[in-house]
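Researcher: Structure for this, please.
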Amino acid sequence: MIFFVILVVLVFLAQMIELFIPPLEWMYNAHIYVVPVIVFYGAMALPFPLMLALAFVAGFLLDALTVQPIGATVEIALGWSILIYAVLASIMHGLRPLFIRGRWEIHCIMSGICTSLILLGQYLMISFRRGSILFTPEAWWQIAGPGVIAMIIAPLVFWLLHTIGDATGNPFLPERETYR
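Model: Predicted structure, token format:
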């Protein structure tokens, strides 16, 4: 349970820190998102109910930052990011047997893909509300760029979180299987 609390605190801190990380100009001002990588690690290292709770916290924080009321309408309603995080984290949780065997490669790649899917979902919600979908190269960079960055930073973040989990005695990680 200590590890879960640590992940919740890290999600909260990472969400605040992301606000101060400048966008990458050479990637059409793509942002660096660390919170999805932390949540997707939690999806692999925690049991399903705690994974859903972590996805709820991360989605609620993202919604609190991105809810956009314009007049009487809201472009991204409260709760959509929670749903997106829960669905994508559930997919990552389904790949947990690979993680338990020590195979992290697919999870690093999936962290990047899922980060881009979160941003694509937000972009589509805003586009549908406004009544026009326009995929410019800049929009694709805003969606795909953070996913590429998440793929690159995922191994380091996973290793750090795994080290923290081992140090706190994370009871949710079963013993690794040995092959004879």
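Researcher: Any notable elements?
Model: The chain has one domain: 2-17+34-167. The radius of gyration is 17 Å.
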